[in-house]
Amino acid sequence: MARRTGRRPGNPGTREAILSSARSAFAERGFDAASIRTIAATAGVDPALVHHYFGSKDQLFLAAMQAPVDPRELLPGVIAGDPDGIGERLVRTFLGVWDSPASTAGVALLRSAVSNEWTARLLREFVVTQVLRRVLEHLDVDPAELPLRGSLVATQLVGLAMMRYVIRLEPVASAARETLVAAVGPTVQRYLTGELPTG
Fold it and tell me: To 10 degrees, what angle do helices 47-54 and 14-29 make?
């Protein structure tokens, strides 16, 4: 009997064991400090098997988060074009995701993050490393200001999502998307590229 070649498949629980290990690692250590090697060791598998199931660390993180969208597919359209319009493009793209069927998962994630510190940590890592970092690295601003700028942008985007889709505060909840883009976009732009207060 000829021996089978190629990668040996994992047992049915392998994928979930990797995801469980990844969720703990990302929540406890953050995206940057969590390594594929450590995640694999905790799950009791070879690191190559993590790559087999999930590809990259970014893809593993999105799977662990059960993220409804991949920011890498959406952000090129935000980053392209005039830097002075990036705030409005970011808000428009953000609302486009939330006004789609993906909003169901997003609302569940927000509700969970409010009451569960573990989920809040994962959401924080997602917003910072998968969205804001990718936007901010394309702007000509002082690197020392990036954490504050990113945090300020997050207050607007997450706050907008909370009021529009979870709490459903009117008239924000039923406002046209472009109305909100015009209202919130300039504030996000100021946080991204405008002068920050000193002191």
Answer: 100
